[in-house]
Amino acid sequence: MILDELSDIPQNEREVIERSAINKWGENSQMLMVVEECNELSVAICHYMRGRVDFIGILSEISDVLIMIEQLLLIGCASDEELKSQIDYKLRNLKKLLENK
Ligand SMILES: [Mg+2]
């Protein structure tokens, strides 16, 4: 999972916590929370650029987004391999874009 190297909480323990949240509030609610947390990150970045918050405010929202994305992956049952494949594809496209300029 995406947080394996970013959290000291073991993957199986994180999955129990995240599945409990999905079971408690439901898949639709948690998917809406992904949107909400992404918007909070957007606002934090805007506030940082205007000098209203320090970078810790952004880190807090990045953490929220990553936790919600892990839940989104659990809901969607996407495998790590599927995600890695998409990330590699996108990064290769970005590299090509940069090389063409
Ligand atoms: Mg948040």
Name the descriptors.
binds magnesium ion, globular, mainly alpha, 101 residues
Explain what this protein looks like in three dimensions.
The chain has one domain (11-99). 79% of the residues lie in helices and 0% in strands. The chain has helices spanning 11-25, 27-49, 55-76, 80-99. The chain starts with 10 loop residues before the first helix and ends with a helix. It binds magnesium ion (MG). Residues 37, 40, 61, 64 line the site of magnesium ion.
Task: Indicate the topology.
Elements lengths: L10 H15 L1 H23 L5 H22 L3 H20 L2
Helix pairs in contact: 1-2, 1-3, 2-3
The chain binds magnesium ion (MG).
Give the helix proportion (percent range): over 70%
Cα separation of the termini: 34 Å
Large-scale geometry: globular
Specify the biggest β-sheet: none
Mean pLDDT: 94
How many distinct folded domains? Answer: 1
- Quaternary state reads single chain
- Catalogue the ligands: magnesium ion
Poorly predicted spans: none
What's the tally of helices? 4
Radius of gyration from CA coordinates:
16 Å
Name the structural class.
mainly alpha
- Please count the beta strands (DSSP E, at least 2 residues each): 0
Determine the strand fraction and express it as a percent band. Answer: under 5%
N-to-C SSE series? HHHH
